[in-house]
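no rush on this but wanted to send it before i forget. theres a chain ive been looking at and ive put its sequence and its fold in token form underneath. i want to understand how the tokens follow from the sequence so walk me through it. thanks a lot i owe you, the record is right below:
>
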Amino acid sequence: MIRDIGESVGNAVLDGVGRIAGRTQERRPLPTDVLESDDAYLAVFDAPAASAGDVQVRFSEDAVHVRIDRVRDHHEGFEMRAPGRGL
């Protein structure tokens, strides 16, 4: 009984930490180089493990907005406890 309570508390803490870390990463600025030519701009940034189809870039209100939706590899026998790289 006490072990179950301790495990439940531990799970709740890890779940909370993972959610906070993931949300923090989702909202933090992405280091980006912005290049300009005569008729276009080019935003260059690193997005490890992301393909072109995972990336959405839009410009509004004088800002470049980048959204990266990566699908994580599944590791057999393991459960995600703290998604620190965002989801």
The first strand starts at residue 33 and ends at 36. The chain has two domains: 1-30, 31-74. Strands lie at 33-36, 41-44, 55-60, 63-68.
